[in-house]
Design brief:
With about 650 residues, the protein is mainly β. The chain has one domain (about 185-654): YVTN repeat-like/Quinoprotein amine dehydrogenase (Methylamine Dehydrogenase, Chain H). β33 and β34 form a beta hairpin. The radius of gyration is 24 Å and the shape is globular.
């Protein structure tokens, strides 16, 4: 059964924000204008589940009416007190640039993020970690492995759907440098250089540069901070290593005007060829990857509830959205509209809904596999349609005693299936034929597991919590054979790793990658070797055959953190969050040596890095392809007073 959700976001009182893994941290400072070093980013508020439908189908639970719930601060403990920003207060000096609070510790209220609902009651914050008994979920005779060793130049967008555009926003300087120094600064700097040359007895004085930073803290990167040859790429991968990885800010989508207490779902972002598409207020908009120019605007009946994580054949993408715009009388219309649209033109190919017992079924996820689009994770089972024409392949029926909870697509189609009722629910993982929806094989999930997330469809790997509620959502990964039998289980103790799987969702795990017969996960932040409160982490791997740690690790380096994005052939693509005074990076990790090579390096210009760091990296929608990185939020709300935030940012390699 699924976990009971907390109350609605929209009517909740404001409070502190959740922490974000890997987001750049800034030292504390008194209030300042745009472009001044900002405080650490905050976690956006969680989604109102279903925006009208009770969140998530509780595997076997009967549904009760009421406003849709949210997921406020799930699993995170209360954070430290807020910094003193009183006028005239002495600013606190940072211990170490780029310092990160430990994973799981809430940073102070900061740049661009609205306040979120208060922390949940005791029992949702870090529960005492309990390991399952030895052999839990294992094939007979197999021992449980021991814990391992350790998204600018933007003109104002046209109005649509009655929505009034926001007032002009401060534009981020897309260049590589900051403000021009004054003559006094130049004179002083020159004097310092002369003194340093004399005192240093021939040792050249130089200010810290991005290249210096690459040498000192980009673990495994080339010494000059460059990515390598123009045409070189990893085995089977498509991402080429550039001679110069420096990027420019190519897209900024300003935050729309939003009422004080509103939270708008904008789930879904897609990248295909020269077009990047992003959900916004009751619409999906397409942008040119290189210039950021708006190419098309696709109006939706209501807010976006879900977007396919992949783009299908012919450049087709899928979105689930509300049947109407929210009103005071109906704040949360049902998520029962399914549309497929062309990424190049923004033209809607088809729209469908599923009739079930006199009403329309609601859905929370949409996936694409081959020529089939599937929807699920709502309250009424799952459905499949042909991608090109929207012809129904299968739909839920009232008479069904078993039903699909949700799906994960990509190279293969995998379903989480449920039989039985509240007293005795039985979960299954099934490999489906996308053309028919028929199961090719079925794996019976061990009793006691209430929530299943699909980590990979080829090979099939699913995750679950086998103990108390966790922060990450998955404490164990189950690896299945090609015939649907259990091969092994990988234990991921809560608090030790920094992946994230959303509760009551099937295809919503982030910061994990599967390839090379390995599961790649980021470790939780830890203290680095630098002075002060320098923080860092690693990406480590587990063998899918043995379930044990391989000992392989890619170190982020002091003041940096790594999170996997996806596989590129046999190489691991990762986002590398930087300290507050540098831009983030996208790196490619060699699976044999675990050394990193830089694919993209964002500007260190103050306004650009502040805009980038306003996104909580492990909770943002993040897409990288062919030298372009896009970072976006899936929940929109009014920024705090005096701050600026964006729906999406794009960075393109020169």
């Amino acid at each position: 059964m699924r976990k009971p959700p907390p109350g609605p976001v929209a009517d909740a009182p404001q409070g502190q924000q959740q922490p974000g893994f890997g987001a750049p941290r800034a030292p504390q400072s008194p209030p300042a204008g745009f472009g001044a070093p900002q405080g650490p980013p905050q976690q956006p508020p969680s989604a109102p589940g279903g925006f009208g439908a009770p969140t998530g189908r509780p595997y076997g639970h009967p549904q009760s009416p009421g406003a849709p719930p949210a997921q406020p601060g799930y699993g995170f403990p209360a954070g430290p007190p807020q910094p003193n920003n009183q006028p005239g207060a002495q600013p606190q000096q940072p211990n170490q640039p780029g310092a990160h609070p430990p994973m799981g510790q809430q940073p102070p209220q900061g740049y661009a993020y609205p306040q979120s609902p208060p922390q949940p009651p005791q029992g949702y914050a870090y529960p005492p970690m309990q390991q399952p008994p030895p052999g839990y979920g294992y094939p007979a005779g197999q021992q449980q492995p021991p814990p391992p060793g350790y998204g600018y130049p933007g003109a104002q967008q046209p109005s649509y759907g009655g929505y009034q555009p926001p007032p002009p926003t401060a534009q981020v300087d897309a260049g590589g440098g900051g403000k021009k120094p004054s003559p006094v600064v130049l004179i002083v700097t020159a004097a310092v250089v002369v003194v340093a040359l004399i005192v240093g007895a021939g040792v050249l004085y130089a200010t810290s540069s991005d290249k210096d930073d690459d040498r000192s803290s980009s673990a495994g990167a080339d010494a000059d901070g460059k990515g390598g040859g123009d045409a070189e790429n990893g085995s089977g991968g498509t991402e080429k290593f550039p001679s110069d990885p420096a990027s420019r800010l190519s897209l900024q989508v300003p935050n729309p005007e939003i009422a004080e207490d509103d939270v708008i779902s904008a789930k879904g972002s897609w990248l295909a060829g020269s077009v990047y598409a992003k959900s916004n207020v009751n619409a999906v908009k397409g942008y040119d990857v290189s210039t950021g120019k708006e190419l098309w605007n696709l109006p939706l009946a209501g807010q976006s509830c879900a977007g396919s994580r992949t783009v299908g054949a012919g450049g087709l993408a899928a979105v689930v959205y509300q049947e109407a715009k929210a009103t005071k009388e109906n704040k949360y219309p049902q998520c029962n509209q399914i549309s497929v649209f062309d990424m190049k033109t923004g033209v809607k190919k088809w729209t469908r809904s599923v009739e079930l017992s006199g009403s329309k079924a609601s859905f929370e996820e949409v996936s694409i596999s081959g020529s089939t689009v599937v929807v699920g994770s709502g309250n009424d089972g799952g459905a499949g349609f042909t991608l090109a024409g929207g012809k129904p392949i299968w739909e839920p029926k009232v008479s069904d005693t078993c039903e699909d909870i949700g799906y994960a697509g990509g190279p293969r189609l995998v379903a989480v299936h449920q039989c039985g009722g509240y007293e005795d629910p039985k979960l299954q993982v099934q490999l489906l034929d996308p053309a028919t929806g028929k199961a090719k094989w079925t794996y019976n999930v061990p009793a006691g597991i209430e929530d299943v997330s699909i980590l990979s469809t080829k090979p099939v790997v699913f995750g679950a919590e086998t103990g108390d509620d966790s922060v990450t959502g998955v404490t164990d990964a189950f690896v299945l054979t090609e015939k649907g039998a259990l091969a092994t289980k990988i234990t991921l103790p809560d608090g030790k790793y920094a992946h994230r799987c959303e509760v009551n969702m099937v295809d919503a795990c982030h910061d994990m990658a599967v390839g090379n017969n390995r599961l790649y996960v980021p470790t939780a932040e830890r203290r680095g070797s630098g002075t002060g409160v320098s923080m860092t982490n690693e990406i480590v791997s587990f063998d899918l055959t043995t379930g044990k740690s391989t000992g392989e690790r890619a170190d982020a380096g002091d003041d940096y953190t790594l999170q996997p994005l996806r596989m590129d052939g046999d190489r691991i693509l990762a986002y590398k969050a930087a300290p507050y005074d540098h831009g983030g990076q996208v790196v490619s990790i060699d699976p044999k040596t675990m050394k990193q090579r830089i694919l993209l390096k964002n500007p260190s210009t103050e306004s650009v890095r502040d805009a980038e760091s306003s996104f909580v990296s492990d909770r943002a929608e993040m897409l990288y392809e062919n030298g372009a990185l896009f970072i976006a939020d899936d929940l929109l709300s009014k920024p705090s007073s005096g701050s600026q935030h964006y729906v999406a940012l794009g960075f393109t390699r020169e």
